[in-house]
Specification:
Distance between the termini: 28 Å
Structural class: alpha/beta
Largest sheet: 9 strands, mixed
Strand content: 15-25%
Number of helices: 17
Shape: globular
Bound molecules: flavin-adenine dinucleotide, 2-acetamido-2-deoxy-beta-D-glucopyranose
Low-confidence stretches: 1-11
Mean pLDDT: 92
């Protein structure tokens, strides 16, 4: 429709050509970067990556903190065999192994409010019992036909083991310990409670053999982007992915309707940004999180996504996990300790709200703290915790200062009689829920997923045009059948879709 003899139109036509790429990738997280790298490795450069945030990385976010770095998102390389992150990083000696991991629990104290320590032998018994169940749960064949939640399954086994003991720990301790254990292991999926997590869904996830908590020796998790683009170890061999990334480019709508028309040549897919800019492409690869899809799939796609994909979007679980870091100028805790786990009673929560009325309803989130732990890998003095589920969302409504002081006051309730706890000199935390480019942490299998028969494979299915060719494709951790919720899963999904694109463009 471009009137070539009209100067204005031809300029706009060439401007439009500039904004056309054969492939548009939405999202510069691990999966989008992996896809772009794989395409370029195969000599395909006609692509643009649209990223809403002012940075690349997505849920990998390494930040400077306390004269060091901390990870607001992914931190560990989970396992070795079959883990593509491990395979890229290990030969270059970038990874550190944590022989001390088993030791972590034995150097952790359990404390009641007021400072009393729980008896070591009883805690060890409870830790051993519950960890053994957790470790065995995803290889338990009984789970395959189980229709209940992970919480029910776990408690059944736990109570059986407890009943078999000659000397049982006091009921109050068992109760509070279980409250802690649910919180402390909640980061496996980030669900609101373990009664939301599917029991048999745990079998979908596949663990890579080997050390499950490998950390990066230096540089942090963001180094993985340099590995994907081959910038590391040899910058001269870098694939120019970064140059094809447009930051601050939030996609508002993907118009793929015209692809249903029979016209030849095929009309392009039109992608409009919130800032009004338009881009066109033959193929669009969507890598936004499942949280983003849950929140905005209705408006992001025109026409709407097919019913089966929407069923997966609505019913696969998407968790909430946040991290908190406090920086103290000097350690106030005994040396050699890996941290304090708190045994919380209802009375503690009531007392906290009474004593600190200035926090108002904020008292609701402190119960999400499982304890305060010392970061063994950082020489600086940092205490951190994970917070999961509803408290993780609630916490995001308050300022850094309020949360920092809330943590300090909560610490005071448990340890203030034994130690003078100073005000931290630094504080940071993640906010994955409020940020509309994430809306949470990572995917999991819920009871809803089971009921609705929702699968990662449904999320991964490309939308085909009338000729049966892929038009809109999907990658991202949540689209991986069994490595979902991880960086290695996200990367594999990006490679998978890059291969599909290469096949389709041939
Ligand atoms: C707290 C936390 C801890 C974790 N710990 C680990 C761990 O220890 N080990 C591990 O393996 N994994 C961990 N994970 C999971 C891992 O970080 C993710 O699975 C992985 O990084 C996801 O990559 P992705 O490409 O699928 O999605 P993302 O990283 O979310 O990438 C999608 C990109 O799309 C962008 N985007 C969103 N909406 C739009 C839009 N409208 N327009 C344009 N761009 C948009 C986003 O900004 C983002 O950059 C953790 C995650 C969290 C949150
Ligand atoms: C706090 O002090 C009391 C009394 O001395 C002691 O019994 C308790 O073990 C101490 N708690 C901690 C966490 O050090
Ligand atoms: C718990 O497990 C550890 C390591 O396997 C073992 O050394 C310890 O004796 C166990 N403790 C109890 C109370 O079972
Ligand atoms: C968890 O389960 C409860 C009770 O069944 C339900 O009300 C809630 O919506 C669920 N939460 C999530 C995040 O699925
Ligand atoms: C084309 O892309 C540029 C940025 O890459 C953007 O500023 C411009 O608005 C786009 N053009 C149109 C017609 O949307």
């Amino acid at each position: 429709m471009h009137l070539k003899k009209n100067g204005v139109f031809s300029r706009s036509a060439s401007a439009q050509r500039r904004n056309h790429s054969r492939v548009l990738i939405i999202g510069a997280g691990a999966s989008g970067y992996a896809a772009a790298s794989r395409l370029m490795e195969n000599g395909f450069y006609d692509l643009t990556v649209l990223e809403a945030e002012p940075r690349i990385g997505g849920r990998v976010n390494t930040v400077r903190f306390a004269e060091n770095i901390v990870e607001l998102g992914a931190e560990w390389v989970h396992g070795e065999v079959g883990n593509v992150v491990y395979e890229m990083a290990e030969p270059l000696e970038l990874l550190g192994h944590n022989a001390a991991k088993r030791d972590f629990n034995s150097h952790m104290d359990f404390v009641w409010s007021g400072g009393a320590l729980a008896e070591r032998a009883e805690i060890e018994l409870l830790l051993n019992t519950s960890q053994a169940i957790r470790d065995a749960v995803d290889v338990d064949p009984a789970l395959a036909s189980y229709t209940g939640s992970y919480g029910e399954f776990f408690l059944d086994k736990f109570n059986q083991k407890l009943m078999a003991l000659e000397r049982r720990p006091p009921a109050e301790l068992v109760d509070r310990f279980l409250g802690w254990f649910e919180k402390a292991t909640g980061f496996y999926d980030g669900s609101d409670t373990w009664f939301n997590t599917s029991g048999r869904g745990l079998l979908h996830y596949r663990e890579c053999e080997g050390d499950l908590a490998i950390t990066w020796k230096r540089g942090g998790y963001r180094t993985v982007f340099d590995l994907l683009t081959k910038r590391f170890p040899n910058p001269s061999q870098e694939l120019p992915v970064r140059r094809r990334v447009l930051l601050n480019s939030e996609v508002a709508v993907i118009r793929w309707a015209e692809r249903e028309a029979t016209s030849r040549p095929k009309p392009p897919i039109v992608v409009e940004l919130s800032n009004g800019a338009r881009y066109t492409a033959d193929l669009v690869l969507v890598t936004v999180s499942l949280g983003v899809l849950k929140h905005s799939a209705d408006t992001l796609f025109d026409p709407p996504l097919p019913q089966r994909k929407m069923n997966a979007v609505r019913n696969l679980g998407f968790g909430q996990v946040n991290k908190l870091f406090m920086y103290f100028s000097d350690p106030w805790w005994p040396s050699g300790l890996s941290g304090y786990s708190v045994l919380v009673t209802e009375d503690d929560l009531e007392a906290f709200k009474r004593k600190y009325p200035q926090y108002g309803s904020m008292g609701h989130w402190v119960h999400g703290l499982s304890g305060f732990y010392i970061d063994q890998h950082k020489p600086s003095v940092v205490l951190f915790d994970w917070i999961v589920g509803e408290p993780a969302r609630v916490m995001e409504r308050y300022s850094d200062y309020q949360i920092m002081m809330g943590c300090k006051d909560w610490l005071d309730m448990f340890l203030g009689q034994n130690f003078t706890i100073p005000t931290p000199i630094g504080f940071t935390r993640s906010m994955w829920w409020t940020n509309k480019h994430f809306k949470g942490s990572y995917s999991y299998r819920s009871l809803d997923s089971d009921r609705a028969d929702a699968w990662a494979a449904h999320l991964a299915e490309p939308i085909l045009d009338r000729d049966g060719e892929p038009a809109v494709l999907f990658a991202g951790e949540a689209t991986h059948d069994y490595y979902y919720s991880t960086v290695h899963g996200a990367i594999e999904s990006g490679w998978r879709e890059a291969d599909r694109i290469l096949g389709s463009l041939k």
